[in-house]
Automatic annotation (TrEMBL):
<dbReference type="InterPro" id="IPR009057">
    <property type="entry name" value="Homeodomain-like_sf"/>
</dbReference>
<dbReference type="InterPro" id="IPR001647">
    <property type="entry name" value="HTH_TetR"/>
</dbReference>
<dbReference type="GO" id="GO:0000976">
    <property type="term" value="F:transcription cis-regulatory region binding"/>
</dbReference>
<dbReference type="InterPro" id="IPR049445">
    <property type="entry name" value="TetR_SbtR-like_C"/>
</dbReference>
<protein>
    <submittedName>
        <fullName>TetR family transcriptional regulator</fullName>
    </submittedName>
</protein>
<dbReference type="InterPro" id="IPR036271">
    <property type="entry name" value="Tet_transcr_reg_TetR-rel_C_sf"/>
</dbReference>
<feature type="domain" description="HTH tetR-type">
    <location>
        <begin position="20"/>
        <end position="79"/>
    </location>
</feature>
<dbReference type="GO" id="GO:0003700">
    <property type="term" value="F:DNA-binding transcription factor activity"/>
</dbReference>
<dbReference type="InterPro" id="IPR050109">
    <property type="entry name" value="HTH-type_TetR-like_transc_reg"/>
</dbReference>
<keyword id="KW-0805">Transcription regulation</keyword>
<dbReference type="Pfam" id="PF00440">
    <property type="entry name" value="TetR_N"/>
</dbReference>
<keyword id="KW-0238">DNA-binding</keyword>
<dbReference type="Pfam" id="PF21597">
    <property type="entry name" value="TetR_C_43"/>
</dbReference>
<keyword id="KW-0804">Transcription</keyword>
<feature type="DNA-binding region" description="H-T-H motif">
    <location>
        <begin position="42"/>
        <end position="61"/>
    </location>
</feature>
Length: 213
């Protein structure tokens, strides 16, 4: 046994369990506080709600940015898991697609920190974006197979639309809360297969329709 091993006794199992409970309490409290108050909230409020001291909070999360990033990552992943389960459980492909957008925007509208993250960092992490893109692709494929999606709509179109509507949630949160529901309805109507007019070619002007050849 080395001198270092003599000098540093292994932590008791009880201590590890307490540390994990404290970490979980901090993350849970932070999720609620960030959602209510946004990323600018004083971390003392998070410590108060979690029932831990400031020293304990900083041992687990040395900076507020680190805590916020952890909370947002967990929330996005939890939402994506729930969105996937709902989509699978919804038999109607169109309702599954519409429900995805409703859930996405409704979740964001009720969480100030999530809305702020789109303005400051562009939204979720790369891994969350990949999961989201894959889910949108599944929803689009189902709608195409059922003949309910407008011809020419791509997964990229739907992914970019989700980002645009997320920005709408951000820009109207204070002045016109709930305005996103109106914009979503307009968007969904435009995605319906009832609209057979060719879409503009990607990367070209809006007045350039796709070839029908």
């Amino acid at each position: 046994m080395t001198l270092a091993e003599h000098a540093t006794p292994a932590p008791r199992p009880g201590r590890r369990a307490d540390a994990e409970r404290n970490r979980a309490a901090i993350i849970e409290a932070a999720g609620a506080v960030f959602a209510e108050c946004g990323g600018g909230v004083d971390v003392r409020e998070i410590a108060r709600r979690s029932g831990v001291g400031m020293g304990t909070l900083y041992r687990h999360f040395p900076t507020k940015d680190e805590l916020l990033a952890t909370v947002l990552e967990r929330q996005f992943n939890a939402w994506l898991t729930d969105a996937y389960q709902r989509a699978v459980a919804t038999e109607d492909p169109w309702q599954a697609l519409a429900g995805f957008f409703e859930q996405l925007l409704g979740t964001q509208a009720g969480n100030r920190a999530v809305v702020e993250s789109y303005a400051s960092t562009g939204g979720p992490s790369a891994s969350c974006i990949q999961r989201c893109y894959a889910l949108i692709d599944q929803l689009r494929t189902r709608c195409v197979d059922a003949g309910v999606l407008r011809p020419g709509v791509t997964t990229e179109d739907l992914f970019l639309l989700s980002g645009s509507l997320s920005q709408a949630v951000l820009t109207t949160a204070e002045s016109h809360p709930g305005q996103w529901r109106r914009l979503l309805r307009i968007s969904l109507d435009g995605l319906s297969s009832r609209n057979a007019e060719p879409l503009p070619v990607r990367g070209m002007g809006a007045d350039t329709p796709a070839s029908t050849d």
